[in-house]
């Protein structure tokens, strides 16, 4: 069975705050779509008067039980905030925290079509909330939708006039329908590489062997997390495993498959196959490796200008597209 | 196979620590917005209750019901607002064995319910307002929900607690002015504010009742101040979710005094100084076609008043359906 839409999830980072420590690893708290304050808090009057910038880190995760990869994934905003505040997103890492944000990151967002467009046209103007964010750039792929029809197009060049970007489409890309400025959203698309679990940085210190090429750790879209694992032998056949972030996750033996459980997800962090072991291990020997989850880390930045207008239910939408086998 | 999912992220920039305006005010911009209840007063009798002094009654014969118009200042998104009127509370006069109080009961009688409330729409008007900083660093205008464009008509200097001049307040949008530090001073501003407008058509007791002067009672201090009770203000309650406000509409009475207006045949009537006679019960008047004496119509009246003015002339008032 292919990856299902219901298996695309958004998780908060383990630390959610307005401090420099905000962000970090993927946490276990789901962002439930359409729930007020599911990610950003309300803006109190004093904050709205004075203005603010807040960041939240999220992970778009594939929780496919068959551990399939999400191919040609795309992330983009399908609705920008109605109030005078604005939200953009940019790419994070699996572990970075707010203090690592430099401000020069490539930003993605959405704007409003500035003038009606019809079939066959090869350029479009888009009003954005802040040109300084430069959410459209040369070579971008964009998403355009009036709520009924939608397209993804490649942009060749972008020119700016104040907060309006004029996008000239790449050769072979044309507007394929009628889009009214009044109801058409245009957004820039972030296209990460295929989303799937992986491991790397395999290292063995000791007299034994493990054939990670033939018997690589079996990873789980549900249970695998970002971590650096150390497997330490406590005898010739027994070992314990701890993660730099997860801590001790269990003990195993070379005679059976070892699959430490991720209690938050009820799925293994990984599985070390018994067939992979070789040679003779001794106490103190170690194997280290890193695992990476099937998740795309993103930072969302909310900017509330000083004196921003109020809105009781402010909303933006983030969409996650892809294909699977 | 393609797959997609969307996540909707929601939050508010409208915290509950700041409430919208929700206030009602009588619309006085145009005189036509208010139409007083019109009646003509009739002194019709006095009674002698044995040992008690004479009691004068003033009957109110209703000429028209009248209406009032009021504004409800609140955001346009407050819809629908519930608007209801509260009937005047029936009160029982105190006074022990005050036996002739039946007339007083009349004025508290039912018949006030059924006021019609008509929503006239959303309107905009110019507001002038003073924004005063009194040892504060932030002030907001009354009706900020439209995020209006504000024009400063006049302003004072602004000083801090030490009396040192500080920069003028900065407008932060959404009706908020801020000073760089707590201070004193004021702005006189103008802006446009929108509001809902409602009109309340009074439902008065049908074809009656009695507006009592009760002068005699007052003299006896039996029912002091009760003379205003018959037409107490009509209370209107407006509510929307956690917001509620009330407004009192003064059902102003217009004295439709025939004696001071052009009367029958355009002839001015004199003062009614001699009291009046009243005929209780039914009476029927036949109106005959002047061209055909056999054609007529009988109109049954239920009350008939005879008045004599100081000139000795008689005014007859006939009230159908007046029991």
* Strands of chain A, total number: 26
Q: Let me know the average pLDDT of chain B.
A: 68
Q: Give the largest interface pair and sizes.
A: A-B, 54 and 25 residues
Which secondary-structure class do the elements of chain A indicate?
mainly beta
Q: What overall form of chain A do the CA principal axes indicate?
A: elongated
**SSE string of chain B, helices as H and strands as E:** EEEEEEHEEEEEEHEEEEEEEE
Rg calc of chain B: 29 Å
Strand content of chain A: over 45%
List the uncertain runs of chain A: none
Structural class of chain B: mainly beta
What's the SSE pattern of chain A?
EEEHEEEEEEEEEEEEEEEEEEEEEEE
Please give the oligomerization state of what you see. Answer: heterodimer
Largest sheet of chain A: 6 strands, antiparallel
The tally of helices of chain B reads 2
Helix fraction of chain A?
Answer: under 10%
Largest sheet of chain B: 8 strands, antiparallel
The N- and C-terminal alpha carbons of chain B lie at a distance of 84 Å
- Which stretches of chain B are low in confidence, meaning pLDDT under 50 for 5 or more residues running? 43-58, 90-111, 206-230, 258-280
Describe the 3D structure.
- The complex is a heterodimer of chains A (325) and B (323).
- Chain A is an all-beta fold and 325 residues long.
- Chain A has one helix at residues 45-50, and strands at 8-15, 23-30, 35-36, 52-62, 71-79, 86-91, 107-108, 110-113, 123-127, 141-145, 150-161, 164-169, 185-189, 198-205, 208-210, 218-219, 227-233, 238-243, 247-253, 261-262, 267-268, 270-271, 277-279, 286-292, 295-304, 314-323.
- In chain A, a hairpin with a 4-residue loop joins strand 20 and strand 21.
- In chain B, strands 2, 5, 7, 8, 9, 10, 11 and 12 form an eight-stranded antiparallel β-sheet that branches. A three-stranded mixed β-sheet of chain B has the order 4-3-15. A three-stranded antiparallel β-sheet of chain B has the order 6-13-14, with no helix packed on it.
- The termini of chain B are far apart.
- Mean pLDDT of chain B is 68; it is low at 43-58, 90-111, 206-230 and 258-280.
- Classes of the chains: A mainly beta (325), B mainly beta (323).
- Strand 26 of chain A pairs antiparallel with strand 1 (2-11) of chain B, so a sheet runs across the interface.
């Amino acid at each position: 069975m292919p990856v299902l839409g219901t298996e695309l999830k958004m998780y908060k980072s383990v630390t959610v705050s307005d401090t420099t420590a905000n962000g970090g690893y993927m946490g276990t708290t789901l962002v439930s779509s359409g729930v007020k304050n599911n990610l950003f808090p309300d803006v109190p009057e004093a904050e709205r008067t004075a203005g603010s910038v807040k960041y939240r880190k999220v992970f778009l995760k594939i929780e496919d039980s068959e551990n399939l990869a999400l191919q040609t994934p795309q992330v983009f905003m399908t609705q920008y905030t109605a109030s005078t505040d604005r939200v953009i997103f940019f790419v994070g890492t699996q572990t970075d925290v707010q203090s690592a944000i430099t401000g020069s990151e490539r930003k993605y967002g959405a704007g409003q079509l500035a003038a009606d467009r019809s079939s066959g046209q090869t350029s479009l103007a888009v009003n954005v909330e802040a040109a300084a964010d430069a959410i459209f750039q040369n070579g971008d792929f964009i998403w355009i939708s009036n709520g009924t029809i939608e397209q993804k197009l490649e942009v060749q060049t972008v020119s700016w006039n104040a907060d309006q970007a004029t996008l000239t489409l790449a050769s072979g890309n044309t507007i394929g329908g009628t889009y009214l400025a009044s109801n058409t959203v245009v957004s820039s698309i972030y296209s990460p590489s295929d989303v799937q679990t992986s491991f790397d940085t395999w290292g063995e210190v000791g007299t034994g062997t493990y054939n990670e090429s033939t018997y690589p750790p079996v990873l789980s879209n549900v249970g695998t997390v970002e971590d650096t694992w150390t497997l330490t032998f406590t005898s010739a056949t027994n070992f314990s495993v701890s993660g730099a972030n997860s801590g001790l996750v269990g003990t195993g033996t070379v005679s059976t498959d070892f699959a430490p459980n991720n209690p938050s997800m009820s799925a293994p962090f990984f599985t070390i196959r018994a067939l992979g072991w070789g040679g003779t291990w001794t106490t103190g020997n170690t194997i280290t490796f890193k695992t990476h989850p099937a998740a795309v880390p993103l930072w969302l930045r909310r900017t509330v200008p000083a004196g921003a207008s109020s809105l009781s239910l402010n909303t933006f939408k983030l969409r996650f597209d892809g294909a699977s086998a | 196979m393609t797959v997609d999912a969307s996540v909707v992220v929601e939050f508010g920039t409208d915290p509950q620590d700041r409430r919208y305006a929700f206030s009602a005010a009588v619309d006085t911009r145009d005189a036509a917005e208010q139409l007083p209840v019109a009646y003509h007063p009739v002194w019709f009798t006095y009674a002698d209750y044995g040992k008690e002094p004479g009691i004068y009654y003033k009957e109110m014969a209703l000429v028209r019901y009248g209406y009032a118009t009021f504004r409800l200042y609140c955001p346009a998104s407050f819809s629908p607002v519930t608007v209801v009127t509260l009937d005047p509370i029936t009160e029982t006069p105190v006074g022990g064995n005050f036996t002739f109080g039946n007339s007083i009961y009349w004025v508290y009688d039912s018949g006030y319910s059924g006021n019609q409330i008509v929503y006239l729409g959303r309107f905009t008007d110019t507001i002038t307002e003073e924004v005063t900083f009194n040892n504060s660093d932030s002030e907001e205008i009354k009706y900020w929900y439209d995020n209006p464009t504000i024009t400063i008509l006049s302003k004072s200097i602004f000083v801090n607690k030490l009396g040192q001049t500080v920069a003028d307040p900065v407008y932060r949008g959404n009706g908020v002015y801020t000073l760089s530090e707590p201070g004193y001073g004021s702005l006189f501003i103008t802006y446009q504010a929108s509001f809902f407008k409602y009109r309340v058509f009074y439902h008065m007791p049908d074809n009656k009742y009695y507006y009592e002067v009760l002068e005699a009672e007052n003299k006896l201090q039996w029912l002091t101040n009760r003379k205003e009770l018959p037409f107490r203000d009509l209370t209107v309650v407006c509510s929307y979710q956690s917001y509620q406000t009330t407004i009192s509409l003064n059902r102003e009475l217009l004295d439709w005094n025939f004696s001071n207006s052009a009367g029958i045949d355009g002839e001015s009537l004199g003062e009614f100084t001699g009291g009046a006679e009243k005929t209780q019960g039914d009476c029927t008047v036949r109106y005959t076609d002047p061209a055909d004496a056999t054609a007529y119509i009988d109109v049954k009246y239920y009350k008939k008043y005879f008045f004599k003015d100081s000139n000795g002339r008689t005014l007859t008032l006939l009230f159908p359906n007046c029991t």
